[in-house]
Every structure is written in structure tokens, then in C-alpha cells.
Design brief:
Distance between the termini: 42 Å
Structural class: alpha/beta
Shape: globular
Helix content: 40-55%
Strand content: 15-25%
Number of strands: 14
Strand order of the largest sheet: 1-2-5-6-9-10-11-14
Length: 285
């Protein structure tokens, strides 16, 4: 009798775990939880899994480690928690360190190597006006991305470039940087992670870009915009994700990542739970 009860309990627990796994979907950009990840990565990753996310994007690589863990250790920890490594932001990449960094990203189990801003000191931020930009020009950036993208492809990874708002505006030479990259980077080596918030912030239309450059936007960053024009949990702001989501096939989107650069009235951990519920509002799954 005891054996039968124990068997029933084990089956019930297994069934519960299966249901929870089935209920998990969508991704989270860990940049949202960067402070929590820095203080206690393992507990924070557990909270991400508990919130119902299925996969993650890293943004904490330093000295060959992801959040203080070797690539092997990080991959193992994610597997234990039922989380899948999909993409990693590698902002410190250079032409000199790229090979070693690509090897680490590959070993950790990621599919996408993401360049989050113009690398190698090209990215600029004006703290007084809170505006972003870049030096060196679009042609220079395209050349760097092509080199990195070819390296990634040879290693079995896919390179994506992540936008902010400045790439959708004309630079000092009258060039719209994102358009130049889309038209001149080799699509076999370089594609894009579209940050839906920053596109909207720039006054551009994501859907118009999907139509003009179909199949080029492999991952989306999904975050909402509050009444002041800044970051908000998904489903609480003004961005019409339903309209955008209808064009996911046209865009080429394979994965999406919830992200919130800053939180204001909630903690980051609370914000990711609100966003997780907000995904349901628009039919993300």
C-alpha cells in the first residue's frame, strides 16, 4: 500500500512538472535583471523559470564567463532549471577577441551572437541629453559586422545586430544607419534583433520595416512604452503588439525576448511577472 501511494505521488509530481513545462513560453532578456543576476545569478534564474519563461538571452559575459559561471556551468544550470539559452549580448566584442568569445558563446549552448551596440568604442552616449549615437559611419560598422558574422557562421552561430533609436535617424552624412546595414551587410552572415520599443521611440514603424526588409529580424525585444515615453511592462503601455505580432512570419521572427531597461514603480522581478501576463493579452505564446 505504501509503495502504491509513493508511486501515485511520484506520478502526480511528474504530471505537475510536465504541465508547468508546457505552460512555459517566451523569452526573457536577462539585462532586465542585471542587478539581481550580479548579486545571485542562480536564485534569479530560478525566479525567471518560476515566472513562466522558457528561454533566455544573456547580457553578462566577462573574462570568459557568463555571470561568473564558465560556459559549461552556465549551460548546465539553465538545463537544470528548464531554461534554454537562445541569444547572448556580447557588447565587448572586438575583431581581436571575437574568436575566443564566439567559442564561449557556442559552448554555452546559444544559437545567436548579438552585437547590442556599435562595438569597439564606436557607441556614444550623451549623458546630459540622454541621447545615443555612434562614430565611424554606417559603412565602417557594416564592414565590422560582416567580419564578425562570417566568423559566427563558420562556428555554427548566427550574428544579429540589436538596434536602439539612433540607427533609425539620419546621421551627419544623411544616412539612416539601419537601412544601410540592412542593404549592405551580407544576409548570410548578418541579421537583426529588432527592439520594438526603440523603433517606436525613433518614430519608425516596425511593420513597415518588415515589409521593406522581410525575414531579416530573427529576434524581437518586446517592451512597452509608458505615457512619458519610457519603459513599461508588456501590456501596460501604448505599443500595439497585436498589430506587430500579426506580421511575425513576414519579419522572420524565430524568438522574442521580454526586456525592460529600467523599472520605475516595481522591482525588475515584479516587472517580468507583469510582462509575462501581458504577453497573453496579445497572443504571444
Amino acid at each position: 500500500m505504501k509503495t502504491f501511494k509513493l508511486l501515485c505521488m511520484c506520478l502526480l509530481m511528474a504530471s505537475s512538472s510536465f504541465i508547468n513545462a508546457q505552460d512555459s513560453y517566451g523569452g526573457l532578456a536577462l539585462y532586465t535583471l542585471r542587478d539581481d543576476m550580479a548579486s545571485d545569478a542562480e536564485t534569479t534564474l530560478g525566479a525567471v523559470a518560476d515566472a513562466g519563461y522558457k528561454y533566455i538571452e544573456a547580457a553578462g559575459y566577462e573574462d570568459g564567463k557568463f555571470y561568473g559561471m564558465t560556459p559549461f556551468e552556465f549551460k548546465k544550470k539553465l538545463k537544470e532549471l528548464g531554461l534554454k539559452p537562445i541569444s547572448s549580448h556580447q557588447g565587448s566584442v572586438t575583431l581581436e577577441n571575437a574568436d575566443a568569445m564566439i567559442a564561449d558563446v557556442k559552448e554555452a549552448g546559444f544559437k545567436y551572437f548579438v552585437v547590442p551596440v556599435p562595438p569597439m568604442g564606436l557607441f556614444t552616449v550623451d549623458e546630459e541629453t540622454m541621447t545615443m549615437g555612434m562614430t565611424g559611419g554606417a559603412e565602417n560598422l557594416a564592414g565590422i559586422l560582416d567580419v564578425l558574422g562570417e566568423k559566427c557562421k563558420k562556428a555554427g552561430l548566427k550574428l544579429l545586430y540589436h538596434n536602439h533609436d539612433f540607427e533609425f535617424k539620419k546621421d551627419e552624412n544623411g544616412v539612416v544607419v539601419i537601412d544601410y546595414l540592412l542593404e549592405h551587410c551580407n544576409p548570410k552572415w548578418v541579421n537583426f534583433q529588432m527592439d520594438l520599443f526603440w523603433v517606436t521611440k525613433a518614430g519608425a514603424d516596425p511593420v513597415a520595416y518588415f515589409k521593406k526588409y522581410p525575414k531579416r529580424f530573427k529576434i524581437w525585444h518586446v517592451k512597452d512604452m509608458n505615457e512619458d515615453g519610457w519603459f513599461a511592462p508588456v501590456g501596460t503601455g501604448s505599443i500595439d503588439f497585436g498589430r506587430i505580432l500579426k506580421e511575425k512570419k513576414l519579419s522572420g521572427m524565430k524568438y522574442y525576448m521580454v526586456e525592460q531597461d529600467k523599472t520605475y514603480k516595481t522591482t525588475p522581478l515584479e516587472a517580468i511577472k507583469i510582462s509575462r501576463k501581458g504577453l497573453e493579452k496579445y497572443g504571444f505564446h
